[in-house]
Amino acid sequence: MKQFQAGHRIHLIDHKARHYALTLKVGEVYQHSGGFIRHDDIIGKKDGSVVKLSNGKAMLALYPTLAEYTVKMPRGAQVIYPKDLALIPLWADVYPGARVLEAGIGSGALTIALLRAVGERGQVVSYECREEFARTAMKNIERYLGGPVPNLQLCLENVCEAASLRDEAQHQRFDRVVLDLSEPWQVVPIAAHVLRWGGIYLSFVPTVPQVMQTVEALHQAKTFGLIHTFETLLRTWNIRGRSVRPDHRMVAHSGFITVARKVEKAEWELRGAETTSGTGMDEDFSIATSETEGGEEKSTPSDVESS
Ligand SMILES: C[S@@+](CC[C@H](N)C(=O)[O-])C[C@H]1O[C@@H](n2cnc3c(N)ncnc32)[C@H](O)[C@@H]1O
Predict the structure, then answer these.
(1) Considering the entire predicted model, what is its pTM?
(2) How does residue 249 score in pLDDT terms, banded at 50, 70 and 90?
(3) In a 3-state reduction of DSSP, which class is residue 156?
(4) Residue nearest atom 7 of ligand 1, based on CA coordinates
């Protein structure tokens, strides 16, 4: 059973599902809405307990999920929203043991998601040009992951000016490059150098001009194929009795995710293939639902060449 301990970050949640973050400290008092509760009265209780404030108000005490933690954690830079945070590790295909180059670290939300995906055997090398953001990010990361993180290497440097990344030693050193900074197109040549063959580039930008410049740079780099861009729309629903409808408000736009793979592009194009692609999702879904058996693809009549 997971019990609350001094030093841990928890959330108190009211009846309207509003979250209030606090770090438990022996002897401290948490004040809220005209009432208070001693931290000592929370420490030792189990995750998911109901606690009572001095004014009789009940609140739910929980360890936050990563999504909940990131929206409430102290910020230097704007964090990636949970809807994108959920998708980025999947579309960058970050797997246990992977070596990931990230820039910039910002407030550390994406870094935590990447660290969870690479696991203990993997590594995240993160570049950040602003020291104060890096400091906030490291605090956020270590607090969430419970202490120093040996497989995270922080480089306080502009990733575009990092001479070390252009070294022969860094050639093909990374499996994935994940960028959340304002000018990812500047990093594309570095990504081309440090990614291994078949490696994946992913960047996130909020505006159309940025995504245009990014995709243009990927085409210019002459080594990226299967380039595609998409955004995510997440709409929550109100389900209460017979009142079943979409919520009135949503975070409609956050940014564009662009993904590309390091491939033998010239050779590929020579054979008439397109460098830009869709996500391949439609095809994958139709194969998965109607044409696979035991994980093997079956041919349909139109696939069978007549002899
Ligand atoms: C939007 S924030 C990243 C937020 C982060 N992904 C998160 O989830 O918390 C962008 C960060 O990139 C950093 N940055 C911008 N250009 C950079 C560069 N060329 N090299 C390194 N860091 C850079 C900024 O200082 C800022 O901290």
Answers:
(1) 0.89
(2) very high
(3) strand
(4) 79
